[in-house]
Design goal:
Chain lengths: 489, 345
């Protein structure tokens, strides 16, 4: 169920009204769980069984891991949890990719019989909820988390509809406590879901920003990006560079737009979901970028993959190997394709270069010159040049087109004739929207808590803000909204 | 507590009011700047000319049918002592969801037979550009209960949702930008006054702009190599929408139903295509269109004729789906006359 469809609007209104009517805490939570399952079932049908299977398995394994004192047993149970979750993810998401590689290898050894593809349905959101359930059992194993009090609560944590299909990947230790509250006599019970004025206003404001990002920026960029990258060969460098920047804007507006809608919807229901983006295009280094982009995934990879591999506690070479391994895995998480592996590898490579420079010139980090505004701006531009370069393999799936686009991005040909014609014939508005994006991105970077400031406006001004946002979407939308890109992952 | 509740109510009221104000602006703007209804005054006056009890045949459809010279057809028909009068009411960029706006006018003109020309572009699927190139998530289908399909096929279909006119929402950005441009560079009327339009006598609902250099709007015959060069892959041009939810398919169904209720016979015709379409698309890719046409024909028990590949190798084409208007051979017309004579005898 797309957030930008009338289906979701009706569904969300029904959920809100029902929660308001159901005063009983227990019923409210059961209703929220059923609504989340309906949300999933609506687009994924019987693949909901996978979600339910993961939920039940990890709930009981979590309990068992917590109870057992035998370390070997704990480890075995954790391995079962990891194998089951990653096995499901691997089977549904990567089986055909693996078959493709086997067939390719077979051809190198003159094996004529190819393994047929399975052509499995790709369950929506599987990459996200699998990572959530893994983090749950691992945290219990590490002694950082107590198991969920009930299956119902755990099921709601796994399936909570605002973030079910495209994150943010939330942790049980953040979410589960929000289902409970202190009752009279210091006992603890299920939290009553109440619509609080502050949450309601802030939630609607965040959601409206999300819709604005998706319907105004992302959708408007998509036509231009598609036109360039469906057949880029023969195009000039500047056209390729502009399309690359436009895709960077599109994917940010698309994904952070989705996240905003998810965070806003959850907040209206009284749940706080941590932020997933912090103005990533103002990152001053590759590692800073990963502190700002898809934060819930990068922190997950750090906590459950990079650190267990040894992190940066071992030799320099091992640290670099860990970085590249984690980033390639992160790339592969997005999809079973060489493109995502290249994208992940490029980011891994950037992190290694950055780390080695930082290690070699550690004394310069406190230099006033290197902390000046000019150098900071220069760092932002350099970082973003490489971040945007990596967007090319993420977007362009045909290898020839990808190589051509990357060449044109790196080795600028300084020709502009075709670019000017291309822009003048139908893409002037796209360029204006691109400029507006960077201005607003800068304003929100400087302002910090712009969303909160708007949410704190008086009702008249706030209403005016909503009218402006809705009007911009209505008057400048492309009519038929596209899918969210991260729904594919 | 009461204070809190009342504040929540005020917030909800503010949101609703904001939506109402925004949508009102939007609607007023569109109604003012662009006629929400696609019917021109000229079209209304055209349909008002038909006296009762006259044997009229209407050919309706998109520009694919513009090559049908009804003057030539009427001459031949009258030579054959038939008192039917043929009108080619094809319109550029027409599709069933647009044609439905003229439904009442067509019915009030009371033609005896309507030949409805349909091609792939009439049912063309909307293509999502943002996720192009990514592997799409996919939900299993044909399972025991699909709420989305249930709502679409039962509730929305019964409510007539798919025949409602939402064209004004198709690309609001384009309309807004046109408005802004016109505000700075003179009104649309003034601009249109500068343009010169010409009409073909046999196409009452179509006019073309005369450009300084020779107008190429569907007139010239192009040679096959030129057409082949221009269209290397037409697979997305035969990709059609979902049969239960596509607004064009539903509009066609709705119109056929209404014509039948008013005792107007409908005959479906699949429009002709150039050879390049059959070279650049597979039979499998073209199959869904044929299936849906067969289904509609069976559902309403109406005749259907296919011109799909009848002239594919003839030297009459302007592009892959338009026969040139300046042609020497009247192949399409002659076959159509035969069809009319067969259906009227």
């Amino acid at each position: 169920m797309l957030f930008t469809t009338i289906d979701f609007v009706i569904f969300f209104l029904v959920v809100l009204v029902s929660i308001a009517i159901l005063k009983n805490r227990k019923f409210q939570h059961i209703f929220l769980l059923l609504a989340s399952y309906f949300f999933f079932y609506y687009t994924s049908n019987y693949l909901i069984l996978l979600l339910i299977f993961s939920t039940i398995l990890d709930f009981y394994l979590g309990k068992w891991i917590y109870k057992t004192k035998d370390l070997g047993m704990k480890k075995s149970l954790l391995v079962i949890s990891l194998a089951a979750n990653l096995g499901l993810l691997g089977f549904f998401k990567y089986a055909d990719f693996a078959i493709l590689q086997f067939n390719f290898l077979g051809e190198q050894f003159n094996l004529t019989d190819n393994i047929p593809f399975l052509n499995l349905a790709l369950p929506i959101g599987i990459s996200f909820y699998t990572f959530q359930t893994i983090s749950y059992t691992v945290d219990i194993y590490r002694g950082k988390l107590e198991p969920s009090k009930s299956l119902k609560e755990f099921a709601l944590f796994v399936s909570f509809f605002p973030q079910l299909v495209a994150g943010p990947i939330i942790r049980a230790r953040h979410f589960l406590p929000q289902l409970r509250e202190k009752l009279n006599g210091n006992s603890e019970g299920l939290r009553q879901i109440l619509f609080q004025e502050k949450n309601l206003k802030l939630g609607i404001t965040i959601m409206s920003f999300g819709f604005f990002k998706k319907l105004f920026f992302a959708d408007n960029m998509s036509l231009f990006v598609e036109q360039v990258f469906q057949d880029p060969i023969g195009l000039e460098s500047f056209t390729i560079i502009l399309a690359t920047i436009a895709f960077g804007v599109q994917i940010y507006a698309d994904f952070s737009g989705y996240t905003d809608i998810a965070i806003g919807a959850a907040l209206i229901l009284g749940f706080k979901i941590p932020a997933n983006f912090r103005k990533p295009y103002f990152a001053i280094s590759p590692s800073d970028f990963w502190n700002r982009w898809h934060i819930s995934l990068s922190t997950w990879l750090r906590d459950y993959f990079y650190i267990p591999l040894g992190g940066n506690k071992k030799s320099k070479e091992k640290t670099y190997l860990n970085l590249i391994t984690v980033m390639v895995f992160g790339g592969l998480w997005h999809g079973a394709s060489m493109n995502f592996i290249i994208w992940g590898a490029l980011h891994g490579f950037y992190l290694i270069i950055h780390k080695s420079i930082k290690n070699r010139f550690s004394s310069l980090q406190t230099s006033p010159f290197l902390n000046s505004r000019v150098i900071k701006l220069f760092s932002i531009l350099i970082t973003q040049y490489f971040v945007f370069l990596a967007w090319i393999p993420f977007r362009v799936h045909d290898i020839d087109n990808m190589v051509y686009s990357m060449q044109k991005y790196i080795f600028i040909d300084f020709e502009t004739t075709d670019t000017i014609n291309f822009l003048m014939n139908g893409h002037k508005i796209t360029m204006i929207i691109l400029i507006i994006f960077f201005i607003l991105h800068y304003v929100s970077y400087r302002q910090g808590n712009l969303v909160e400031k708007i949410a704190n406006l008086g009702l008249y001004r706030w209403g005016l803000f909503l009218i402006c946002i809705i009007c911009i979407i209505l008057f400048f939308g492309i009519g038929s909204s596209n899918d969210f890109i991260y729904f594919q992952f | 507590m009461n204070k809190k509740i009342s504040k929540n109510k005020i917030i909800v009221f503010t949101v609703l009011l904001s939506f109402m104000i925004s949508f009102s602006f939007f609607y007023i703007f569109l109604e003012h700047e662009y006629d929400l209804n696609n019917i021109s005054k000229h079209e209304i006056s055209f349909y008002s000319q038909f006296p009762d009890n006259k044997k009229n045949i209407f050919i309706i459809g998109s520009s694919h049918l513009m090559a049908l010279n009804s003057t030539y057809m009427n001459n031949i028909i009258s030579e054959k002592n038939s008192d039917y009068k043929i009108y080619n009411l094809a319109k550029g960029s027409d599709s069933p969801k647009h044609r439905i706006d003229s439904l009442d006018l067509i019915i009030s003109s009371n033609p005896e037979i309507i030949f409805y020309g349909i091609g792939y572009r009439d049912f063309l699927k909307f293509t999502d550009t943002s996720t192009a190139g990514f592997r799409s998530y996919s939900a299993p289908s044909d399972t025991f209960f699909e709420p989305k399909l249930f709502i679409e096929n039962h509730i929305l279909k019964i409510l007539g949702y798919y025949t409602l006119d939402f064209d004004f929402l198709e690309n609001p950005k384009r309309k807004t930008i046109e408005f802004i441009k016109n505000s700075f560079s003179g009104s649309t009327d003034l601009k249109n006054q500068k343009k010169q339009f010409e009409k073909l006598s046999y196409l009452p609902l179509w006019q073309y702009e005369i450009i300084d250099n020779e107008s190429t709007a569907h007139f010239e015959i192009k040679n096959q190599s030129e057409i082949n060069k221009r269209y290397s892959d037409l697979s997305t041009d035969v990709l059609i929408g979902e049969k239960n939810t596509d607004r064009n398919i539903q509009s066609l169904r709705f119109m056929i139903e209404k014509f039948s209720e008013n005792e107007i016979r409908v005959i479906l015709c699949i429009t002709p295509y150039n050879n390049v379409l059959f070279h650049t698309t597979s039979a499998e890719e073209r199959l869904p269109f044929s299936l849906i046409m067969d289904e509609i024909s069976r559902e309403f028990d109406i005749s259907m004729y296919s011109f799909l590949d009848k002239y594919k190798d003839e030297n009459i084409w302007h592009n892959f789906d338009h026969i040139a208007l300046n042609k020497e051979k009247y192949l399409f017309e002659n076959d159509f006359i035969e069809l009319i004579l067969m259906e009227t005898n």
